[in-house]
Known about the structure:
The chain is α+β, with helices and mostly antiparallel strands.
Amino acid sequence: xxxxxxxxxxxxxxxxxxxxxxxxxxxxxxxxxxxxxxxxxxxxxxxxxxxxxxxxxxxxxxxxxxxxxxxxxxxxxxxxxxxxxxxxxxxxxxxxxxxxxxxxxxxxxxxxxxxxxxxxxxxxxxxxxxxxxxxxx
Length: 137
């Protein structure tokens, strides 16, 4: 039976690489730091997805602007500020609460940070008729 050079003999499990043998335990190695702008970009994508799921908006040139976000991280938690357009008519408190929930869940899932607070500002309300309406003569 032949084996490739550098591989363990049959029946033996390869051991840990020699480099990791001298490292301190994972808890003592440090922390992963996610910049605020990265957390904000994740929040924008999560907000876009949540808005699409919770409140369908009409397409068109006068349609919704892309959501915007800012983030402030402190000791394992993050505060988010989102701004987005919503359709009119809609149940604004209900839709906003659903969007906040979805964004908090997705940001926590992808970053490992606890989402402490989300402030959501509705920039404007977009109507389906307003996107296609021309000048009245």
